Amino acid sequence: MSNEEPTTEARTSAPDRSSATTSVDAGEETSDRAAEPDRTIVEARNIDVWYDEDQALRDVSMEVPEKKVTAMIGPSGCGKSTFLRCINRMNDLVDAARVEGELLLGSKNVYDADVDPIALRRRVGIVFQKPNPFPKSIYDNVAYGLEIQDVEGGHDAIVERSLERAALWEEVEDRLEESGLELSGGQQQRLCIARAIATDPEVLLMDEPASALDPIATNQIEDLIEDLAEEYTVIIVTHNMQQAARISDKTAVFLTGGELVEFDDTRQVFESPQSQRVEDYITGKFG
Ligand SMILES: Nc1ncnc2c1ncn2[C@@H]1O[C@H](COP(=O)(O)OP(=O)(O)OP(=O)(O)O)[C@@H](O)[C@H]1O
Ligand SMILES: [Mg+2]
Question: Which of 80, 124, 193, 277 allows an S-S link to 88, with CB 3.0 to 4.6 Å?
Answer without folding.
Answer: 124
